[in-house]
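Example record used in the benchmark description.
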Amino acid sequence: MFHGAFVLDSVLHAYNLTPENQLFQPTSGALSRMVWDMHLSAQPRGESRYVLERAKFEFALDPEFLAHAVFAESETDAAIYHSIPLWGFYRDGLSPLWVGREMRKRYPGRVLLFGGVSPWQPGVLDEIDRLVEEDHVVGIKLYPEDIVDGRVKPWRADDAKVAFPIYERALKNGIRSVALHKAQPLGPVGIEPFKTADVSEAAIAFPELNFEIVHGGYAFMEETALQVALFPNICINLEGTTGYLARQPRKFMEILGAMLAAGGRDRLIWATGAMLFHPQPLLEAFWRASMPRDLIENYGYPELTDEDKRAILGGNQLRLLGLEAAKLKAASSKDRFSTRDQLAEPWSGPYAPPLRPADAAAMR
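Model output (C-alpha cells):
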C-alpha cells in the first residue's frame, strides 16, 4: 500500500527491440529507437540510476527481472501485463504474452493479463476465445495499424466490419475492457490512426464495454477530454503520459486537470508502461503533485485530492474490471514481495533472459 492506496499499474511491457526481432525496415528500427529515446527522456533529472542499461532494455524478456523492478523496487501492489500485437513490425509482436503469463504463474494476485490481437491476423476471433479460455486474460489490447504484405495497414475503432466483431467476441467472453493504443505513433508512420475520434462511435455502439484510450492526453488532449465528458464508458489509461511527471510535471497536471474537469475522475487509470519507465519515481512524483493554482483559477480545473489520487492509482481500474483489492492481496500475501520492508535499488533484480533474441518469437 502506498499512502493508503492499492497501486495497480495498468500497463507493463517486456520489450524485444533487438535487430533480430525487427521485420520491417526502416520503420521497425525507427520505432525501436523511439522507445529507447522515450525511456531516456522521462528520467528524473540527476537520477541516472533509473536509466536501464540499453542491452537489458532492448531485450527484457525476463519475467523475474520485470517482477523485481515493479514489486521489489517500487510500491506497486499489482499490475497488468499487456502483450503487443505488432506481428508485422516484430517477429514476437514486441512484448510477448508469455512473459506476463510466467509472472502471473510465479506471483498470483500480483499480475493480470491483457491479450493483444490484430484484426488483420488470421482467426482473430478464435484467438480472443483462446486468450480468455487458456490465458485467462481480463482485457483485450489493440493497436490501430500493423504491417501487412509489406505496407502499413491501419484500421478504425468504429469500423463495423473490422472492429465491431472483435468487441462483440470480447463481450461474449465476459471481457469488460478493451485498451486502444492512441496518441503515440509507431515510429515514422501516418498520424491519423492515432487520433481518438474513432473511439466515440465504438463507445456508442457498445455501451457495456469500457474503452481505454491508452496514452490518453499525451496528444489530442482537448479532443480526448471532450470524449470523456460525453461518453461514460471512455476511460483514460495514463501509460506514457505519466512520464511527464519526471521532467514536465506542469504538462502532466494540465492533462490531468483537463480530464478531471471533463468529469473523468473515476475513469483515470494509473500506468507507467514499465519497463518503459521505472515506476517508483513516477509514483512519488504523483503523490507530491498538486493542481497549480493558476489552472484552478483561470481554467476552472478542480483540486487534486488524496482521495482522487487513490482512485487513480488503483481504485478506478479495480472497479472497471470488477476486481477486489482484498482478494488480490490475499492471493499474494505469502510471496517474496509481501515481506518487503524497504525498496531495492532500481533495476537491481536478476537478469537472465531465457532465449536468444532470434528465438524469442517461438514463445509468443
